[in-house]
Amino acid sequence: MASTTLRAGEVRLLDGGTGTELQKRGVTMTSQAWCGPAALDNIAILEEIHRDYIAAGADIITANTYATSRVLLELDGLGDRFEEINRASIRAAQKARDSCGRPDVLVAGSLSHRGPIAEGTARPDGSAGGGVDAMARAVSELAAMLRDEGCDLILLEMMYDPIRMAPVFSAAAQSGLPVWAGFSARRGDDGAVLGFDPGQDIPFSDLISILDDWKIDAAGIMHTPSDVVADALDILRARFDGPLLAYPDSGYFKSPHWQFEDVIAPADLRDFAEGWVARGAQVLGGCCGLSPEHIAALEPLKRGPGPETARAGA
Questions:
Q1: What is the DSSP string of 187-252?
Q2: Summary mean pLDDT of the chain
Q3: What share of the chain is helix, strand, coil (3-state, %, to 5)?
Q4: Residue 184, domain member (yes or no)
Q5: CA–CA separation, 202 and 208 (whole Å)
Q6: Per residue in 123-177, pLDDT tens?
Q7: Is residue 234 part of a domain?
């Protein structure tokens, strides 16, 4: 298994959006599990997306498990296919890695606190899904599957709800796998950096205080506008001294479809990313709305560890 350790001076590439890329390539999105069931009938497209990201330079690809918890699948009538869907999703990423001859590529298992989303919006629907206790059981089950099916690490994605985050961090820790955490932010009307949820004006510095309670191998900013990432990284660095991640989104969501409007140009993404590297980011990539061409634009920013670290074998 390739190392999940990020050495000093090293810059590696994560992939871009998987769910939005599936949508772009014609895969039907379901009302609640969104892109999660894609592995049932569209495995060839899913594998192709992973291969395209590897070809673009990605060192880490993300299994399509962001929205595959049993709770979400049950809402779409697919709860009894939980194991089938998740095994197929993880194996699609592993097969893509093998077919590309890149044994060094890491497969990250995505784990989120995503709950039901009201159709036509990006807002949580609190009337379905069974609440936090049901979600906690579901993410524990999924985290164990990510481990048992051979994911190299767990990537906590779109962390922004203080109440729902804790069970996800706990489930990831219990898996025994390395854990990378991605937090989502937005800018408030007064310019302050806040947690992503527009219904709660939570200072971003308060949101990430959860890092004080858990051992995390890397942390960063994801599913966040590119022009907010740098300020959020500065706040994160003040609290967390480990490796940093940066992978923004572009466009917006109206469940169950991503809206590809005003998506950032690959060259502009690279300009932003140069600033993130200067702030210490060691993993660069993209989230919803961003595609293999965006990752290819970041490829020149990759670099190995510093010579002193490499000689020390760290």
A1: E-TTS-EEES-TT---BHHHHGGGGGGS--SEEEEESS-HHHHHHHHHHHHTT--S-EEEE---SE
A2: 94
A3: 45, 20, 40
A4: yes
A5: 10
A6: 887 666 679 999 999 999 999 999 999 999 999 999 999 999 999 999 999 999 9
A7: yes
In degrees, rounded to 5, the angle at the alpha carbon of residue 53 between the alpha carbons of residues 48 and 57 is 145
- Which residue range(s) make up the domain with 159? 12-312
State the Cα–Cα distance between residues 221 and 182, nearest whole angstrom: 5
CB contact at 8 A, 191 and 215: no
CA-based Rg of the chain, rounded to a whole angstrom? Answer: 18
Say what the pLDDT of residue 312 is. Answer: 29
CA dist., res. 286 & res. 302, Å (int): 15
- Number of Cβ within a 10 Å radius of residue 169: 22
- How many domains does the chain divide into? 1
Report the residue count for the chain.
314
Residue 125 placed within a domain:
yes
What is the domain-level CATH number for residue 72?
Answer: 3.20.20.330
Q: Flag whether 1 is in a domain.
A: no
pLDDT in tens, 74-115: 999 999 999 999 999 999 999 999 999 999 999 999 999 999
The tens digit of pLDDT for each residue in 174-208 reads 999 999 999 999 999 999 999 999 889 999 999 99
Token reading at 15: 């992939």
User: What distance in Å separates the CA atoms of residue 295 and residue 60, rounded to the nearest whole number?
Assistant: 11
What spatial distance separates the first Cα and last Cα of the chain, rounded to whole Å?
17
- At 122 the pLDDT is 85
